[in-house]
Write a structure and sequence with these properties.
Helices cover about 35% and strands about 15% of the residues. It starts with a helix and ends with a helix. The strands form two sheets. Strands 1-2-3-4-5 form a five-stranded antiparallel sheet. A two-stranded antiparallel sheet has the order 6-7. It is globular. By secondary structure, it is of the alpha+beta class. It has one domain.
């Protein structure tokens, strides 16, 4: 889902305010207008447009440090086809694997922004490890994701580590009324994971036969990268 821009601005602002109140060093910066994505983004991800919600987020001046929960950071615009390698665990997604952009990187997880189709604007998450078929939607939209993190800070689920100067997810058991899959924690409870996968349209047969589908996906990634270099 693509957020109303006012809702997205308020959600990101609310998260920054909550994060700084918790102790994170994140000085306020003037809002920047949504820019244009680099030309190569359309070609890398095989899309004819990039949503304003994503270009606006990329245009904002964030500190050059991890400001997201669990040592998370906003990834820069990709420069070449090697960005597709991040999508190697996109098994069974209900949208073309290539039409998503790596956006947030955490210690053990990657969050992507879906670029096209009926799932445009959704945030999906994948473990940064081999042989793990956990493709699943983390959030229906960017604003919803930031709102969950803000509420997590208020609930004591996300806490500031004074020694390392990071925000860490402390105890998801406290997350009453929150969506555990919005938080960058892995592994997650399998019953919850499988239920969410079914709910958001993941091909469960592909998940069950992950090795075979993984080989096919890696071949498709290699072919896409080769076409970009041609």
């Amino acid at each position: 889902m693509l957020d109303d821009m006012r809702v997205l601005r308020d959600a990101v602002h609310g998260y920054r305010v909550a994060a700084t109140a918790a102790g994170l060093d994140w000085p306020e910066q003037p809002e920047q207008p949504a820019g244009r994505p680099p030309d190569q983004v359309h070609r890398i991800f095989d899309v004819d447009h990039v949503a304003e919600q994503l270009t606006w987020l990329h245009s904002q001046r964030w500190p050059d440090r991890q400001v997201l929960p669990n040592v998370g950071w906003r990834m820069p615009w990709p420069e070449g086809g090697e960005a597709l390698d991040y999508l190697g665990l996109s098994i069974g997604t209900p949208f073309p694997w290539r039409q998503q952009l790596p956006l947030f990187h955490f210690d053990f997880l990657l969050y992507t922004f879906v670029l096209a189709g009926e799932h445009e604007g959704e945030i999906w998450r994948y473990p940064v490890s081999e042989d793990s078929w956990e493709s699943v939607r983390a959030s229906t939209s960017l604003a919803t994701l930031f709102d969950q993190w803000t509420r997590g800070i208020a609930a004591g689920v996300v806490v500031y580590d004074e020694g390392r100067k990071w925000l860490l997810v402390d105890d998801l058991a406290k997350a009453q009324g929150l969506d555990p899959l919005a938080f960058p924690v892995s592994p997650v409870q399998e019953t919850l994971l499988r239920a969410r996968q079914r709910e958001c349209g993941v091909d469960m047969a592909a998940v069950e036969d992950g090795f075979e589908h993984s080989e096919e996906l890696l071949d498709a990634i290699d072919a896409a990268k080769a076409s970009l270099d041609a």
